[in-house]
């Protein structure tokens, strides 16, 4: 297991953690300013959101190269199914391709996929998962040609209705098995999987198909399941044990901190959030 | 699969569905008035909460016998672990026994167990599940002597932090295997398990150890994970398929409707809620 106490170059910031503090929103930190603040602290990577870089992909990528930070990935493909997905099938396919193109333009390695909830007019997850697999299989070929890897992210079952009918690492790996594309893997997010006693077995099964590892914490008394995530150490997830299993499976990539927290962290100075994040990464992950 | 279109004697009301409209709260329906309203509609059973019958167990049981309604079960054993459980170990044991005694006094068959969340000072669910197994093993002997069956209810993983470190049917059955007591089984609640693709396999494994089956629905856009449950048919759970699998496993007991809904159903006239519940039970379950 890697030791992060003295070297945090494997730490990546997902800009969601700062409340998407990009130009024109929140405290107004641009991707460039955010990258500079990360580099100043020894943080090795950044994960950006599409709306933060739209139309400026090349410039953002150039800044990242200039200051020496890795653009780890892009969030995210469109919802493919469910009540929040585009209604027209062609719109889903087109936007999925646009997200892949944008990932390539950024020089990022990974596009994260959050699949969407239960398709309207259907019950249960089976039909929706079947539709997801079709979209992902098609996109995987397109992404391979663009040099982009796709990471299926199972979300916590609380999002099963509207955001992700894909709720477990087991289901995500089953879909990977079914599609069988070399550039398709999974993203493991502590928030989504911490409760799952089947996780160790599934991580061992995943092996090198773990394309991303996300850090945060599950607060014992979560007040808002979308925007009340905890900083590492403040909740009940056994982060160190999960990271050990992820690394035992063969993962040696970046550890991405992604904390949606309208209740707490988004209210703070972004510089303070970064400082706390670094400290917690060194000490409790 | 049983046909409920013309016979709803297998339908049971969990009084939570009426917002615990018992004497002194809400619309003020006593357990007796609630039972009468159920009998008038052909509903065959009722599930009560401890605070609704405390000190009046024998009288409530006598009324049930007199009007011909089955007291299916009692909610519930105390939280055994986690931030909401009694701090002292003896208090947990004592209250667990009191709940078993109360179940027997009511003439009810089943006491439901909601195990509680992650034990303070620990991380992840493993330690807490170990403690739960100890409490349940001890209680199972006591319950057997009282003629009471215990139903472990896995809750949706959203409750993992504070209310239930036991989050899947698989985990509940693993604990049953471990304790190996004839009067220990599981309660399957659509709200808690609808998202789980492993459910069909686990239900087949459960067989006659399914002691209870709970109906409600998961709303696609759930606004409050504690008090925004849906009426059957209003959400995305594939209720009919789950019921088919439960019955295929050998379950032929009551179907208990338990809907916590401060957002909708608790605001309505209890008589209307019962009428809608009956209609939905006939048509969408």
Tell me what the structure shows.
The structure is a homodimer of 285-residue chains. The first copy, chain A, is of the alpha/beta class. The first copy, chain A, has a single domain, classed as Divalent-metal-dependent TIM barrel enzymes (TIM Barrel, Alpha-Beta Barrel). Helices cover 40% and strands 13% of the residues of chain A. Chain A has 10 helices and 8 strands. Chain A has an 8-stranded parallel beta barrel with strand order 1-2-3-4-5-6-7-8, surrounded by 7 helices. In chain A, strand 7, helix 9 and strand 8 form a beta-alpha-beta unit. In chain A, helix 1 runs parallel beside helix 3 and helix 8 packs parallel to helix 9. The longest helix of chain A has 21 residues. Chain A is globular. Chains A, B: InterPro entries: IolE/XylAMocC-like, Xyl_isomerase-like_sf, Xyl_isomerase-like_TIM-brl. Chains A, B: GO terms for molecular function: isomerase activity. Chains A, B: Keywords: Isomerase. Chains A, B: This is Sugar phosphate isomerase/epimerase.
Q: Main β-sheet of chain A: number of strands, strand sense, barrel status? A: 8 strands, parallel, barrel
Low-confidence stretches of chain A: 22-26
Straight-line distance between termini of chain A? 11 Å
Secondary structure category of chain A:
alpha/beta
Briefly note the CATH topology name of chain A: TIM Barrel
Any idea of the CATH class of chain A?
Alpha Beta
The Rg value of chain A, from CA coordinates, equals 18 Å
Assembly state of the chains shown: homodimer
The best one-word shape of chain A is globular
What is the domain tally of chain A?
Answer: 1
Rounded average pLDDT of chain A: 95
Share of helical residues of chain A: 25-40%
Which CATH-level-2 architecture of chain A? Alpha-Beta Barrel
Query: Which two chains form the greatest contact, residue counts included?
Result: A-B, 39 and 40 residues
């Amino acid at each position: 297991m890697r030791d992060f106490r003295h070297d945090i170059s494997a730490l990546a910031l997902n800009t969601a953690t700062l409340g998407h503090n990009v130009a024109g929103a929140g405290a107004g930190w641009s991707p460039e300013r955010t990258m500079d603040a990360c580099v100043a602290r020894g943080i090795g990577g950044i994960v950006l959101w599409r709306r933060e870089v739209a139309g400026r992909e090349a410039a953002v990528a150039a800044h990242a190269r200039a200051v020496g930070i890795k653009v780890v990935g892009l969030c995210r493909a469109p919802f493919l199914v469910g009540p929040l997905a585009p209604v027209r099938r062609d719109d889903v396919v087109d936007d999925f391709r646009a997200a892949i193109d944008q990932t390539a333009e950024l020089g990022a390695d990974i596009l994260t996929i959050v699949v969407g909830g239960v398709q309207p007019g259907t019950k249960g997850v089976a039909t929706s998962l079947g539709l997801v697999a079709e979209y992902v299989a098609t996109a995987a070929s397109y992404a391979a040609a663009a040099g982009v890897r796709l990471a299926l992210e199972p979300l916590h079952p609380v999002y099963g209705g509207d955001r992700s009918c894909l709720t477990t690492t087991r289901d995500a790996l089953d879909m990977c098995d079914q599609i069988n594309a070399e550039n398709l893997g999974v993203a493991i997010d502590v928030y989504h999987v911490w409760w799952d006693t089947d996780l160790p077995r599934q991580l061992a099964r995943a092996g090198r198909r773990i394309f991303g590892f996300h850090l945060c914490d599950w607060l014992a008394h979560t007040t808002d399941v979308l925007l009340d995530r905890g900083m590492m150490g403040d909740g009940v997830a056994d982060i160190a044990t999960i990271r050990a299993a992820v690394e035992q499976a063969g993962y040696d990539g970046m550890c991405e901190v992604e904390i949606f927290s309208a209740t707490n962290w988004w209210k703070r100075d972004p510089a303070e959030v970064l400082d706390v994040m670094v400290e917690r990464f060194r000490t409790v992950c």
